[in-house]
Amino acid sequence: MTIHGVGYRSLEYQATPMWERLMPIASMEFRSMFQNRRGLIIFIICQVPAIAYLIMMMIILGIWKLFGEQAVMSGNEGFVALSEESPQNPISPAFYVDQVMLWSFPSFLVLTFLVSCRAVAKDRAANALEIYWTRGITPIGYFLAKWFGSFLLLGVGFVALPVCQWIIGVMMAPDATFFDSTYAFMPRVILTMTLFTAVMSGMAVGFSALSRSPNFSAILWVLLMFGSTALGNALSQIFRSQLWLRSLSPWDSAGRLVHWGAGVQDTRDQPLWSACMVIGTVILLLVLALSRRLRVQEAVQ
Amino acid sequence: MIEFLGVSKWYGQVSALVDMSFTVEAGVTGLVGQNGAGKSTLMKLAIGLLRPSLGQVDVDGGSPQTPEVRRNLGYCPDLDAFYEDLNGLTFVTWMLRIHGYSGAEARRRAKDSLQRFGMAEVMGRKIRGYSKGMRQRIKLAQALAHEPKVVFLDEPMTGLDPVARHQMSEAIRELGESGVSVMVSSHVLHELQSVVDRVLLIHQGRLMAEGTVSDLRRQLEDRPHRLRLRSRNPRELAARLTSLEVVSGLSFTHDGLELATAGGDGLFQTLTELGADQGQLVDEIAPVDDSLEAVFGYLVS
Description:
The complex is a heterodimer.
Chain A: H1 18-31, H2 37-46, H3 48-60, H4 68-71, H5 77-81, H6 93-101, H7 105-114, H8 119-125, H9 128-134, H10 139-172, H11 177-182, H12 186-208, H13 214-238, H14 250-262, H15 272-293
Chain B: E1 2-11, E2 14-24, E3 27-33, H1 39-46, E4 54-59, H2 67-71, E5 73-76, H3 88-99, H4 103-116, H5 132-144, E6 150-154, H6 162-177, E7 181-185, H7 189-193, E8 198-203, E9 206-211, H8 213-219, E10 225-230, H9 234-242, E11 247-253, E12 256-261, H10 265-276, E13 284-287, H11 292-300
Parallel strand pairs in B: 3-7, 3-8, 5-6, 6-7
Antiparallel strand pairs in B: 1-2, 1-4, 8-9, 10-12, 10-13, 11-12
């Protein structure tokens, strides 16, 4: 190998908008899960709840006749037969919310453990932040890009797949009854799930900025999320009258807010105020910590 | 152009740089100092990763904190800041996209830059499989791909084999000759000397000296110059030289003498005459302590 001339060619520099410059960072964050076969397999496994709900919906709508022509209800009979409030009923908002809130906690832990809560720590450990800062990327822009990449990754299972289920349901249903029964609440459900995904992915990415070691921040994140959920559940079982204790878990608190936002009955009955307080406090603490930890100077000290 | 005006930098109670004032014009400037002398702090102040506690830093006519200045700035960090799963081409392309180039232009420039650094054949390989030399080249390629006016190279020779070091030196020299302001820090002083036009010597956070190596050596009047004289008859040569007042010390070497002198044109005239004599007592005269290493040693001691 030889180094050839390094003389400049004086090409014109064309300024591009900041968001366009941040997209490679977001894209890198999103694609980090798919850089090897193992990551891709894990990602697919993490989508199992959404896939299972899709299959369930197709069976209920009679699109898939798993048990023979005689045994299944066809057309609208399936969802008409179920209670409107039933979380298994695709015409209920609970169908789209509960598949995430009840069944996707492990997926959330796995995806954030592997990607989101390592995002900034990984760059800090590799001293990549130095290069970003010298290329005119601001800490806020950098964080937003990482957040967006992580949001997209979690959003596949939490927002995109439930929306796909609904679209498939609308397209495959024998008549317009399914659409008529769902179109009123779907925008609210989509908005709530989008906000939920944004908040949770933001928390995970924010957490990753607190440490220099990606492994340390990932383990601490999982311990916190899992530990707070376990503690909240245990304490609320012991002190049955103190339902707010369940809100100790950011996941459960966010779940309470999602149920409220999407207009779904939450069986756990934890108070809304405690859920708001926990989520608000976590966000505030993270913002305070980030304002110190993501300064340009922090990259080099 | 890089300009430091009364710059001091403290980390809490520790002062990293004290009242630093200098100007760096186009060409290659070496940054020399022991570990902990303040080289990295100085470089990071110049690229805008740190703000001075006191004083002002100007790069290319503005603050290095501004996007306009950063656009024309190239930085090659001493540590490896890579995404190991990416290949070389993708890494440099992404860095250019973050810098503000469109996808197609970024890819074209990245290819061009990698080709110039002799990485054409391996640019498609994952960075994880690169040798130390290749990693250094890829760092340099990303630092220069956007053709910056001011370039900072932190220990660019580290880990390179002698051939690669020579090639790297040539590339840096060519860059300086093309009108770019290049600041290079390196521990390999003898190789730095062959590249730089001038040096900044830093010791314990203070600018100890600046200028060309030969200028600096000339200014060290209190230090005797040492010359190595190759001779076929060192005894007779020694006898002739001891009578000269300007000679302050003599010692025999395997092929001649080593002489210490306080200077003076008389000595060089005498040596020339001895060389031209019938006996040809002096075959060769070579300065021993005109090197950057020696100058640095004198100043620090």
